[in-house]
């Protein structure tokens, strides 16, 4: 089962609270991690758990009948979370072959973690009023903790869900750390020895640009990636354009480093759509046009540096280049702010099968021709290390070498 998800847990320290709206807006702050399915499980004053699962984006989730002082939420590509487990409910970011291994998370969390054989993060809510959260020992699946002073505790995949509801981000949960929160205290225990191997895709694509992942500010990191691209591929051009929103900081870094004007090449149409996550073939083809419309005066007659965060099948990028050519772009040189994707991810990041990955099957010259670009270049792995500032990375989808 392939999963990409945002997970969230909120617990009030007094049962007079109703946290359903906090969960709702917090999930909207995570829907960039997976927008097609959502769900909430909430604990009421009578210690009953009510669950709502929908095949809709979090912003379309109906919550008017949910009322409780603690709960968990899910935004992703599956409609089976939250799932009911022994005396509670749970949400998971990662791959689980058998949901039965989760059944003892509430009663015996440490023993249950021993039975988990793949890297996952989870947040559970018990009928006794506990939030139980765990982050895998590699740190592949991010998890953070924060809150509203002495009123609410919040645990989330990214701090972005805390920002949108006005909560304060405290810290990231460490790889291999188990955290248990109730009305009276927060307990933390290192249950597995950390073997840090952070997911590269989180840095270059998945995390929101206003987020923090593994003690790195994502916006600053992506600006540095753009600077590394400028050092590796200094191309003579009239304008630098980043594909919104992920690649905009790449373009800013590249533009500053080489003193080439930065242009806003696109304007948004409708709600954000992450075409990399889509299983709809039509959406993959026209999705970029649905979410972004090119600006003619920004590209006509110009030599363009077009920067994107990643390239999977090449379908959306080909469509983007076609539209820029149609509006009169003179040259289009493509830079990708990550190394080539050449292999599927076994840990739950939505990377297609190798046969669908364009950079795993064609050389650079052929790819440029297929896309309609004048040239194409990828950030080197060494450039990635320099931008991030460490080498504790999982690069499996880029090197076929996996840490687990």
CATH architecture of the largest domain: 4-Layer Sandwich
Radius of gyration: 22 Å
Q: How many β-strands, per DSSP?
A: 23
- Total of DSSP H or I helical runs spanning 4+ residues: 13
What is the CATH class designation of the largest domain? Answer: Alpha Beta
The end-to-end distance, rounded to whole angstroms, is 17 Å
CATH fourth-tier homologous superfamily of the largest domain? Aminohydrolase, N-terminal nucleophile (Ntn) domain
Helix content: 25-40%
Write the layout of secondary structure elements.
Blueprint lengths: L5 E7 L7 H9 L8 E7 L5 E6 L15 E7 L6 E3 L2 E7 L14 H6 L5 E7 L4 E4 L9 E5 L3 E5 L3 H6 L2 E5 L4 E5 L4 E5 L7 E2 H7 L5 E2 L2 E2 H15 L6 E4 L5 H11 L7 E3 L12 H11 E3 L1 H4 L3 E6 L6 H12 L4 E6 L21 H4 L2 H8 L3 E4 L2 H8 L4 E2 L1 H4 L5
Parallel strand pairs: 14-23, 17-20, 20-21, 21-22
Antiparallel strand pairs: 1-4, 1-10, 2-3, 2-4, 5-6, 6-7, 7-8, 8-12, 9-10, 9-11, 12-13, 15-16, 18-19
Describe, in plain words, how this protein is organized in 3D.
There is one protein chain. Helix content is 26%, strand content 26%. The protein is α+β, with helices and mostly antiparallel strands and 404 residues long. It has two domains: 6-196, Glutamine Phosphoribosylpyrophosphate, subunit 1, domain 1, CATH 3.60.20.10; 220-399, Rossmann fold (3-Layer(aba) Sandwich). Strands 3-2-4-1-10-9-11 form a seven-stranded antiparallel β-sheet. A hairpin with a 4-residue loop joins strand 7 and strand 8. Helix 5 (218-232) crosses helix 6 (248-258), helix 5 runs antiparallel to helix 12 and helix 7 crosses helix 9 (315-326). The longest helix has 15 residues, at 218-232. The relative contact order is 0.11.
């Amino acid at each position: 089962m392939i999963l990409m998800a945002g997970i969230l847990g909120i617990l009030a320290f007094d049962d007079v609270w109703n946290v359903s709206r906090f969960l709702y807006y917090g999930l909207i702050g995570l829907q960039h991690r997976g927008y097609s399915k959502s769900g909430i499980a909430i604990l009421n004053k009578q210690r009953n758990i009510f669950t709502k699962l929908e095949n809709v984006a979090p912003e379309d989730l109906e919550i008017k009948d949910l009322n409780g002082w603690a709960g968990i939420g899910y935004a992703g590509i599956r409609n089976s979370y939250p799932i009911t487990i022994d005396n509670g409910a749970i949400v998971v970011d990662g791959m689980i072959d058998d949901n039965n291994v989760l059944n003892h998370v509430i009663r015996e969390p440490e023993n249950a973690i021993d039975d988990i054989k793949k890297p996952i993060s989870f947040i559970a809510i018990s009928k006794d009023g506990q939030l139980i959260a765990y982050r895998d020992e590699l740190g592949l699946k991010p998890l953070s903790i924060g809150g509203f002073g002495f009123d609410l505790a919040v645990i989330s995949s990214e701090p972005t869900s805390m920002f949108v509801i006005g909560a304060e981000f405290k810290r990231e949960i460490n790889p291999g750390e188990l955290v248990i929160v109730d009305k009276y205290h927060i307990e933390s225990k290192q249950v597995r020895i950390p073997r840090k191997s952070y997911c590269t895709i989180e840095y270059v694509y998945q995390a929101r640009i206003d987020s923090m992942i593994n003690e790195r500010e994502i916006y600053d990191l992506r600006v540095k990636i753009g600077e590394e691209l400028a050092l590796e591929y200094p191309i003579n051009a009239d304008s630098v354009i980043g594909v919104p929103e992920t690649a905009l900081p790449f373009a800013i870094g590249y533009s500053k480093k080489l003193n080439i004007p930065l242009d806003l090449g696109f304007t948004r149409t409708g709600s954000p759509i992450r075409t990399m996550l889509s299983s709809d073939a039509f959406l993959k083809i026209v999705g970029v046009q649905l979410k972004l419309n090119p600006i003619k005066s920004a590209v006509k007659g110009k030599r363009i540096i077009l920067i994107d965060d990643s390239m999977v099948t090449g379908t959306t990028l080909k469509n983007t280049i076609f539209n820029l050519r149609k509006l009169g772009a003179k040259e289009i040189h493509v830079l990708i702010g990550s190394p080539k994707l050449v292999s599927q991810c076994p840990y739950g990041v939505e990377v297609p099968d190798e046969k669908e990955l364009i950079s795993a099957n064609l050389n650079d010259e052929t790819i440029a021709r297929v896309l309609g670009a004048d040239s194409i270049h990828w950030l080197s792995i060494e450039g990635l290390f320099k931008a991030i500032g460490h080498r504790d990375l999982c690069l499996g989808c880029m090197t076929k070498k996996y840490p687990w």
